[in-house]
Amino acid sequence: MIAGAVRVGGMVAGAVVVLVGCSTTQQPADVTTDSSAAVRPLTTAPELPSKPALPTTARTPTSSAASSPAPDPSNSEPIRPPPSTTAGLARGTAPAPARLGTGWAFEAPRTSPEDGIIANGGAALARDPADVIAALSLFGCPALPAPKALPRPLGALEVHYRHRSGTPGVVLLLEYAKESAAVRAVDTYLGNARACSGGRLSGLGPGDHGIVERLAPTPARGAVLEHRESGENSAWLEAVGRTGSTVTLLSISSVEASVVTMSALAAAVA
Q1: Consecutive sets of 10 residues in the chain, 270 residues long: mean pLDDT of each?
Q2: What DSSP string describes 44-109?
């Protein structure tokens, strides 16, 4: 989670699907931007855990083949861009940019090996469900060395946004086979977050990060969270919600009211 380095968790880089008020028609065009501006994923992992490293096409030689000639690059399989839909999820499933507030638009990120992004020309990128679930663990939480794992979804889709100020955002949409599994995913995620909450930032060392400073429940059994990372002196907002069998994790790399508010995020995933 949830681009660049958006935290989802967390993401997302690291994610509940909102169907209400999200039209699939007349969607604004994706804005292609440089992904070097870091976005906090919906995860508290330090190095964009919501995005897997780009696969390498070169084979690592064994000791017995160390003197063998280098492989022919022409025989390497090209890296294919991810699809823009998966398991019934599409860009239109994500909250419309206007629901985040004024100045928001969809963003089509560019390929970035540093951030593990393989672009496909649009704002929505399908993700490997196993990678996403691993990234949504609250790494680095002193109070939760072994967070509970979320159930694995049928599919996961990552959709990117950017504010006119340059602030990035990302939403992770998780589609489950049953509504009960989606409920369990939200409850597990928030349970992990509560174990890291309380507003206690004192005593943290430079390597500690991802502490939940505030957690405000929403009427739909979701929540809006404020994360603070003492080592980087940074903060970001995250909203978690569910609609039927779809879970939405929305992360914005800012806590500035001029960019986004907690009430707007709560409404976006309601």
Answers
A1: 46 33 44 47 37 31 41 64 96 97 95 84 96 79 79 97 96 98 95 74 45 85 84 82 96 93 93
A2: --SS-TTSPPPPP-SPPPPGGGTTSPPPPGGGSPPPPPPPS-BTTB-GGGSPPGGGG-TTEEEEEE
